[in-house]
Amino acid sequence: MRILSHTSLRIAALLALLASAGAAQAHTGHGTSSLFEGLAHPLGADHLLAMLAVGLWSATTLPAGRVWQGPATFMLALVASATLGMMGVTVPFLEQLIALSVVLFGALLVAGRLQLPASLGLGLVAMAASLHGLAHGAETPASGFAMYAIGFLVTTALLHGTGAAAGLGLRRTLARQSTWVLAATGSLLGGAGLYLAAAL
């Protein structure tokens, strides 16, 4: 419960900072429009599943005091690559790669019992986040990047927090069965990611 409390406080503090920054800039219709576009953008199925999975993986795989590192790594890589995406940087088959990042996160959940090095997991999280960020940046509205970025970071933080809360609850209530529950969840995520990639 203490871990969940500390994680929730970190997320709440981040959201408060982002919201206050947004309030300071959202004096025009353009700023408000950009903010809402950013808030909505991560709610596509591929982005949403990946971001929930990051929180879930972090809470069930990383040491108790380091649960925040998965979401933080994702968000830092996300905003950095979104800046590049805004400037026109992209990679071939980006949408398919984003869908396959859902498969990657599913595989990380399945492989949780193998106790892979945390640095490897965080590196894969950063790589996947960079793909999502390029897509976010490429769709920057004409009204500007700053408010749009605040919006997608707020939604991303909420999704990470939801996944982390689910993972911490799983750790607490189904400790002995958690490995198999995570493997099943990871398999479902992998299937969903393959379906999304095939549908593009």
Description:
The chain has 200 residues and is mainly α. It has one domain. The chain is built from 8 helices and no strands. It has helices at 2-25, 29-40, 45-61, 69-86, 94-110, 118-138, 146-173, 178-199. Helix 5 packs antiparallel against helix 8 (178-199). The longest helix is centred in the last third of the chain and has 28 residues, at 146-173. Mean pLDDT is 85; it is low at 1-5 and 14-30.
Characterize this entry briefly.
By secondary structure, the protein is mostly helical. The protein has eight helices and no strands.
Rg from alpha-carbon coordinates: 17 Å
Number of helices, where a helix is a run of at least 4 consecutive DSSP H or I residues: 8
Measured between the Cα atoms of the first and last residue, the distance is 41 Å
Biggest beta sheet attributes? none
Beta strand count:
0
Q: What is the N-to-C succession of helices and strands?
A: HHHHHHHH
Q: What structural class do helix, strand and pairing data support?
A: mainly alpha
Helical percentage: over 70%
Strand content: under 5%
Q: Give the overall silhouette.
A: globular
